[in-house]
Amino acid sequence: xxxxxxxxxxxxxxxxxGWMTAAMLSKLMGPQLSIRLIESDAIGTVGVGEAxxxxxxxxxxxxxxxxxxxxxxxxxxxxLGIQFENWGNAGDSYMHAFGPVGRPLxxxxxxxxxxxxxxxxxxxxxxDYSLNYQAAHTGKYAPLxxxxxxxxxxxxxxYHFDASLYAAFLRRYSEQRGVVRTEGTIGAVVKTPAGxxxxxxxxxxxxxxxxxxxxxSGLRALLIGGELGGGYEDWRHWLPCDSALAVPTAAxxxxxxxxxxxxxxGGWQWRIPLxxxxxxxxxxxxxxxxxxxxxxTLMSNLDAEALAEPRKISFVTGRxxxxxxxxxxxxxxxxxxxxxxxxxxxxxxxxxxxxxxxxFPQQTDMAALRLxxxxxxxxxxxxxxxxxxxxYHLNQRNDNGLWQYCRTMALPDSLAQRIELFRQSGAVFxxxxxxxxxxxxxxxxxxxxxxxxxxxxxADSLTDDQLSGFLADLKAIISRTAAQLPAHQQxxxxxx
Length: 496
Hints:
Layout: E1 8-12, H1 15-29, E2 34-39, H2 56-63, H3 67-74, E3 77-79, E4 81-85, E5 93-97, H4 110-119, H5 131-137, E6 158-160, H6 163-176, E7 180-183, E8 186-191, E9 197-202, E10 207-209, E11 212-215, H7 222-227, E12 232-234, E13 243-250, E14 259-264, E15 267-273, E16 277-284, H8 291-299, E17 311-314, E18 318-320, E19 324-325, E20 328-330, E21 336-337, H9 345-358, H10 367-393, H11 401-408, H12 413-425, H13 438-447, H14 464-484, H15 488-494
Parallel strand pairs: 1-2, 1-11, 2-7, 4-14, 11-20
Antiparallel strand pairs: 3-6, 4-5, 8-9, 9-10, 12-18, 13-16, 13-17, 14-15, 15-16, 18-21, 19-20
Helix pairs in contact: 1-6, 1-9, 5-14, 9-10
């Protein structure tokens, strides 16, 4: 194709993915681009991505969004972590809490000192040293960047929010910055002789051309899959869940500042507290649990009145082989699907948008940028995939074939090596700029009973008195700080 400047961008599909993309492009590149978004009110969105991770703050901050306005507009609540229930054995519970646990000494991570203390008879919980955990499980929250009079980090938070309200909020934001929304459904797509996308034709006859197309059409993957035939890497041999049922319930008070992921026979249930309702769902494998049994499991484990009938979502866990193909970038569910166990769905939209901005082509010859974008996307998806597989693999349940399959299945080499490293030495190393921190990996592995055989020898450099004093001081600071925080419910009411 002729190498011309990229001036026209066409986003196909709205929802969270479409409007997050439109908002960031219009904010950062609005004067340089003509941006149009095509969506149809007749086509529903999945709309279950209501829990996030702390990086969402950076996205909102880049857009200049005020937190109080955002929470009010989206019926949002604070999220301090994810509580995993029944993932080891039935009755077990631990939290992947955001933020630090304890503090390192020199070059040695905190958990090595905690493991050394355990070997000497200490019986404290690893989460005694997490401010986020102590605040979450007592329902406390206030903005606290740092624990006063200490070098210790304060609370680290993300959000729960209504994804459809967030999309509407970002639509208003985008349209104020020049994005043109067109209502309609696509009837045909025109391609160039070189195989690029040239234009889309709506069912009402309108035609729109662009230099760069962004596929935010969700699981349909209308452009990247349907028109360009982009291949898909199926990960169901590692993550066999392929179905979800979603249902909202009435809000329960007080609203707790964490997500719950509750393992059941054949799958797991999410519980996401918003101000006006609670989001619930069951993720399961149709191979091990039929739809009727899944519905019964979900409906019998709700903690409030259901506000609608459960809605089924079918999916194939995996990723597009090329998330940028020709002159089309897939963002959101069109780019791949990872179940929402660690609340990564909206983050993957965010990182894709930021990556696109960083790799945005000036000219329509975009091969080198496309290659780099796809390399980074693959790396990110695979790292998150491994972290999600970890939860399933470390289970000790025996009540359904799903759990037994996941416990004994062959793992990706990257994950098998990481588990073995922790098992032998307690060491966890973050790979380059991957999403989840060392502390996140530590919490899941320790929470699901993977105890290292050894810890770092530097942890033995402290005497018994020094080690117990170090831990006791940390525990007291965390406990005292958490106790002084106001209730999360109070924080929400102040923002109204």
